[in-house]
Fold each of these.
Amino acid sequence: MSKSYRHGQILRIIRSKSVHTQDELARCLKTIGLATTQVTLSRDVRELGLVKTPEGYREITHEETGPAFRLLAAEFLHDIRAASNLVVLKTAPGHANSVAVALDNEEWKEVVGTIAGDDTILVIAPDEKTAAHLCKRFHKLLEGR
Amino acid sequence: MSKSYRHGQILRIIRSKSVHTQDELARCLKTIGLATTQVTLSRDVRELGLVKTPEGYREITHEETGPAFRLLAAEFLHDIRAASNLVVLKTAPGHANSVAVALDNEEWKEVVGTIAGDDTILVIAPDEKTAAHLCKRFHKLLEGR
DNA sequence: CATTCTGTTGAATAAACATTCACTTATGGA
DNA sequence: TCCATAAGTGAATGTTTATTCAACAGAATG
């Protein structure tokens, strides 16, 4: 009954048939012996990066982050922190600028602009909520590096 | 204040910034002088084929229907009707079989199977709701042919 | 062991979204 | 003109999804 097993089953199900609601997905899982609730599935949907389309839930080709920023971040990005509508990124000394430039080039809609010092980048988001989302996105970028 | 103008503005907005809710979208439209409600936007989102992603609303590359079925349908498909969990397609006499074969090859998840006669195809959907959805999808296919 | 921390989950609830119904407006015949 | 029909809309309401909060389990630490 592990979470990752459930995730796998969810993917298998939505690949094989149209599932239009999370409750429906819960019923599908039940038929293979996995008892869950809509609450859990709401989280699973987010974690798996699924989106709801008129044809049912689908995996979305995760708009890939360009390699430049990804590589630089993997190498030099040390800390990520949200502060109101800002995200503060800490880098290795002297590398803030190059990382910020790479990030600018990504042209993420969530990023209004960046300011780079020596080892700190201030990423300006339009609002607090977006900043929090950005934060997660940065963390995700570093997973498993 | 036409609907199609609003649709255009909606696309422009979601291409340029992250919009996470329909209420937020309504506020964006208001700033350019378009007063709408969430109700209307719910319909617009569906009509424009947008999906909600963690990064905001997005146009989804409409999983293209293969050309074979599309072309055959444009040429020979005459009527579309839902009946319980079935969709009954009427074609030009003698063409039901070829259209059905092309449809089978599409491997739509909503289609359990098809049975073709001379000028009639029975499309079997898993349930009534899916049949209704299929119906719309067929109709959409024929728009503007 | 106790304790703290982290991750997972469900119940209750809030938020977001979709649908129904009634109304308006425009259009196109009789 | 008058009626019928169709398209578009919003208010109210129903459905679906997300979040909050509390509980619990297991791992790490004193």
Amino acid sequence: MKEGPDIAQIGALIGDPARANMLTALMGGKALTATELAAAGGITLQTASAHLAKLEAGQLLAQRKQGRHRYFALADDSVGKLLESIMGFAAGRGHLRHRPGPKEPALRKARICYDHLAGDYGVRMLDSLVAQGAIDAVGDGLALTADGESQLQSMGIDVRDLRSSRRPLCRSCLDWSERRAHLAGSLGKALLSSFFEKGWAHRTAGSRSVVFSPEGERQFLALFPAVS
Amino acid sequence: MKEGPDIAQIGALIGDPARANMLTALMGGKALTATELAAAGGITLQTASAHLAKLEAGQLLAQRKQGRHRYFALADDSVGKLLESIMGFAAGRGHLRHRPGPKEPALRKARICYDHLAGDYGVRMLDSLVAQGAIDAVGDGLALTADGESQLQSMGIDVRDLRSSRRPLCRSCLDWSERRAHLAGSLGKALLSSFFEKGWAHRTAGSRSVVFSPEGERQFLALFPAVS
DNA sequence: ACAATGCTTCGGTTACGATCGAAGTATGAA
DNA sequence: TTCATACTTCGATCGTAACCGAAGCATTGT
């Protein structure tokens, strides 16, 4: 009767509230120290250390020693994908941890989903790219058109370089707040990075939300007009 | 710091081995009674009853009373999708519960993934449909072509009828054994059903594996030739 | 009406794991 | 060397939830 992969193990890893909070914190894409993660989980350093060891043994996290710090990050983007998919599922069932708090609106507007843009702005960007003919959407799949490639090159994104990576260029990712797709994959990552580099937006301290500057917001909205 | 949906709750639900076994058993697509699920989980009826109540409260399961039996099934196909995605993740990390046992080969060859065909045969079917031009694959997305529609109609599948459902027609689903995509969605379901109706294949008792009859296998392989 | 089957509820036990204080190790700075 | 910071390991406590036996409902069959 015991068939297939062991889903209980990773379920249990994600199932502890402290660990779930730490993982959620790491969805911001930045590597964090054990101390920071302890704060995110609302537990002491010793307890966090035990949790982190388990998460690492389960291959959900990877650690990088750097001086006397120990940085933890999600093992790879498949972990981020998994977590976001569970979030989407949980949100669909109304399993929200809290009724919409003060920070929720900012999160819904624009946030980091591991390494790309999600939330209202993330959905808008993808919709707009599809409407402009830069991306072809078939079912759940996304593909960059020749037209879109030149369009992105002119925005300073080296598509050819991205293609060389093993990671898929375009990937749709379901948004837990909007319940619609936004752009993931290496292209999604590159776009978000370019927004940061241009100074259009920056990440906030202890949160996954992305804050746009007034000028950056203007540019973003002009570049990705709303789709009817 | 507490942001976003509560992934810990569903993680915990899936994280218990007994519950995970019951959910895995339900991935076979058939509704099962509490007694059957207790056996699948390796626990007594009382314990199973408590677990089932929790799973139902968490909206992972739906129950249907029928006479003095109580049938449990996955709440909807999004639950199946979630479980399969976790399985894919777990398999990728080598978190297999057992080293490949006697039943593994049959599971790898052909099995039910909630309501459609997975495993080697599932992958072959999709590859073949794509090679024949019946389905367009763009990135991860799948779309039925006009050509494919008539092709399927001639196989006795009423595509127009399927279109009317809210569920997507084509959907790709990542296989944990093959690590490649197979066909899900209402079309995937309809195809598997037709194989059962034609007597090409049948499901096995307490397992998710699908067994083809010699004649059914011949027909299937002829209809979906291997792709280079 | 009575028995049989299928499942739930109750009560009590048990075991596991999350937690933290305290002590130990490693790295860097003074 | 000495101190400070960052983290891990140890040891003990505690709470929760998984578990089962027994009793209680509910439905069906005779």
